[in-house]
# Entry
Amino acid sequence: MSRPFLLLLLLFGCILSCKKEPTQPKVQSLYQEKITPEDVKTLTPDEAKTYHRDTVYDYEYRTGTSGNYEYQYQVHGRNEAKDSINGLINIKGKYGAGFLIDNNQDTLAVEVEWVAYGVLKGKDQQGRCYELRVH
# Structure
């Protein structure tokens, strides 16, 4: 009788000693996954904590941490009609967004992506395309 009792205690002890794997807390990012044109207008308090300006590089400033930087650039370029255009964009990784100002001083919201070193392709809400370069 003691042998089945010991086996039962052993089984019960094993069951109690099994622990659930602790769930990893979800890492909260301070930065949006997709940058919107409105991002160029403000710097959040969390972004301000990691603000970095460096005159050696082309960007106006960057925020974030290594591997998760968001950069702001002044850009200039041409629209589809080859008219000059300039503006300010924020970019994280390959994609970003911002505002461009055309020859009529109209402000256009654009989404951009890197296509080469220092070269961006942009598209506004009406589907017009822009070729841009960072200053």
Summary: Confidence is low (pLDDT under 50) at residues 24-32. The beta strands are 61-65, 68-79, 84-92, 95-101, 107-116, 119-124, 129-134. The CA atoms of residues 43 and 125 lie 24 Å apart.
